[in-house]
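Troubleshooting entry. The earlier prediction with acetoacetyl-coenzyme A gave an output that would not parse, so I re-checked the input for stray whitespace and re-submitted. Clean input:
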Amino acid sequence: MPKTIEITRKAGVVLVRLNRPKQLNALNKELKDEILAELPKLDADSSVRCFVITGNEKAFAAGGDIKEMSTLTYAEASTEDYFADWDTFVNLRTPKIAAVNGYALGGGCELAMMCDFIVAGEGAQFGQPEIKLGIIAGMGGSQRMTKLIGRAKSMDMHLTGRMMMADEALASGLVARVVPDDKVVETAMAAAAQIAEYSKPVTALVRDVVNRADETSLTEGLFFERRIFHSLFATEDQKEGMNAFIEKRKPSFKDK
Ligand code: CAA
């Protein structure tokens, strides 16, 4: 049984709650190992249709565990390729929504940005304060934040280490929705339940094509999107989705 995360399930939606409240959900090795052990099994389960990742009212996560990292040497960090294994989380094909209350700092902000989109509470605070510790972001912050909010604001966040409130994060494109703090998990779970109704292979392909935009030129990205779009006409779910619309009924997707 995992100790640093709590996993609960509601129909096709899996809620993953980071559970180190005394440490503001700082991401230590044990927590990372538990996420990377449990979530791939759920990702492979066809009845799991969407993840919601959350923390508690005070913190989504206040970053990588500073106490654990304080004695890390360059040789260890480099040889172990420290943090590279978070790619396993990024590459889960099931959609992931981050439901953020309170602090999402350093690795916590980076974990939220690894999710497909972020639902934030009005009191949520985002930041990349690593500069204050004499380091830089190491779980993708410099790249993902820059893609999401642009170079000027990303430089501001990384160089000053300041925090950004939810309203600024919404205006900047870091988060998709801001709702009252006590509605964050409920809103994310409702969005996840909606995603859970769709064809699982199609939701996985939506992630692939949208994420491709970060990796490639517009021409190549459009070509990739069009080829994936064409391929969906080989599926039963496309026929079902379109026939249901024409027949004015709810579609029943079979993941085929
Ligand atoms: N790592 C380890 N422990 C942490 C932590 C972290 N990132 N953040 C908070 N904690 C611990 C504190 O040490 C404290 O523990 P004790 O009670 O044992 O002293 C407990 O959580 C509560 O924290 P505070 O007393 O500091 O709570 P606060 O409300 O006064 O302040 C805060 C909250 C502003 C978020 C403050 O805790 C803080 O600045 N935390 C560090 C944020 C940070 O620098 N994050 C980046 C980490 S490096 C990183 O993430 C690298 C990367 O790219 C992955």
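This one parsed fine. The chain has a mean pLDDT of 97.
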